[in-house]
Design a protein that fits this description.
four-stranded mixed beta sheet, globular, binds adenosine-5'-diphosphate, 11 helices
């Protein structure tokens, strides 16, 4: 059997504290009622779980606090067979948490305490050399300090691995970092923040992608929600139409897309085909509630792709 493709994810891990309320409380207000749930989240952790379920051999480089939330996150990673030897437990800062109000109309309001995520250092990344040395693809996002993301890009280059940067949450990225990116994967909002071009359709996605390629990213995939994704490569550009699915919860669709994309690229699939695979994984994720809970497995992704 072919050995499983090696993926390293450098990024955040959070515990989402979700409170379903009739409506979002206003300043100074207390609202009684509503269901509470906790769920495993954080873009880095979501992408790691997405990649593991899609068939990757995944290692996560991250920081957690020495607390109950950190323990629970690690237990979740173990269930998905993720290598956590490079997850550092921070002695001073707590694990990251997100407080999420979800109103009955689906509207939400979120506050994030980054905690240990904000303490991930270039040294943490460099010390993870043993996992990078096997990596075919390295993935990072922007919920951890830019210095750690840049170190991930450098480590990827040294390992001869492709580097996927998911520039989320939306925030500026220096050209020096873009030049190290094999595939940049902004959604519409992030593409707009990075280029100033309002991305609403294929034409504007194409324009934004071209600008990001000129700034140094070798390939760009602009994810367009239910519409699918725009893929711009050295060889040309193409639209990948979204799968028609019943949407239940779009949380983490982009994360699951990126995790699956990493696995397909690590297997040596060409970018367009890898993007199709990711498109199927992203579509399946919106048919289920939750972030990591919504990540589909390999068999489910292949079944949708074959349809
Ligand atoms: P983010 O979650 O980062 O905002 P998107 O909303 O662009 O990212 O979703 C990422 C990918 O997930 C899309 O490119 C698409 O492949 C898939 N996807 C998202 N929403 C849907 C949907 N409603 N129906 C089908 N596929 C979807």
């Amino acid at each position: 059997m072919m050995s499983r493709p090696s993926v390293v994810v450098v990024g955040s891990s959070n515990t989402d504290m979700i409170l379903r309320v009739e409506r979002i409380p206003v300043r100074g207000e207390t609202i009684l009622g509503g269901a509470f749930a906790t769920a495993a989240g954080g873009k880095g952790a979501n992408q790691a779980v997405g990649a593991a379920r899609a068939g990757g051999k995944v290692a996560l480089v991250a920081r957690l606090g020495r607390d109950m939330f950190g323990d629970q996150a690690l237990a979740g990673f173990a269930r998905d067979g993720i290598d956590v030897t490079q997850v550092v437990r921070d002695d001073r800062f707590p694990s990251g948490v997100a407080f999420i109000f979800v109103a009955s109309d689906g509207e939400n309001s979120i506050g994030v305490a980054s905690g240990a995520n904000a303490r991930l250092t270039p040294g943490d990344v460099r010390r993870a050399q043993n996992v990078f040395s096997h990596a075919k693809v390295v993935v990072a996002q922007l919920e951890v300090p830019l210095a750690a993301v840049t170190a991930a890009a450098v480590s990827a280059e040294k390992a001869g691995a492709q580097f996927i940067l998911n520039p989320a949450p939306a925030c500026a990225v220096p050209d020096a970092l873009l030049r190290r990116v094999t595939v940049l994967t902004p959604n519409e909002t992030e593409a707009e923040l990075l280029t100033g071009i309002r991305v609403v359709d294929e034409a504007s996605a194409s324009k934004a992608a071209a600008r990001l390629r000129r700034r140094g990213a070798r390939n760009v995939i602009v994810t367009l929600g239910s519409k699918g994704a725009w893929v711009a490569t050295e060889r040309g550009e193409t639209m990948i139409a979204g799968f028609r699915v019943k949407t239940v919860d779009t949380t983490a669709a982009g994360d699951i897309f990126n995790g699956a994309l990493a696995v397909a690229l690590a297997e040596g699939q060409p970018l367009e085909r890898a993007a199709q695979f990711a498109n199927a994984a992203g579509a399946l994720s919106v048919t289920r509630l939750g972030a990591q809970d919504s990540a589909p497995n390999r068999r489910q992704i292949e079944r949708l792709l074959a349809r």
